[in-house]
Structures are given as structure tokens and as C-alpha cells.
Amino acid sequence: MKLLAVYTLLVAIGEFVSYFIGRVVEHWSATASLPVFLACFFIVFWVAWRAAIRIA
Known about the structure:
This protein is an all-alpha fold. The protein has one domain (about 1-55). The protein is about 95% helix and about 0% strand.
């Protein structure tokens, strides 16, 4: 259960960061912001899982 809680927390933090990365990229290129956000969005799930396993 601890693993799931850590994973959920890390995903929430990561998606928050992904959102702001997408917003920053949108200032330079509105077209590029969606692919950058989606890449960050999916990478967060993998990185959060690896980190949650190490933490828990």
C-alpha cells in the first residue's frame, strides 16, 4: 500500500511540473507545446514508478 501512495504522490507532482513545462513551451511555440506536454505526461508515469520502487 505504501508503494501505491508514493507512486500517486510522485505522479501528482510530476504532472504538475509537466503542465508548467508545457505552458513555458507555449510561450515560444503553441504548436510544439502539446507534443512536449504529452511526452512529459507519459514519461512521468515511468519515472514515478521507478522512483516509487526505490523509495518504498
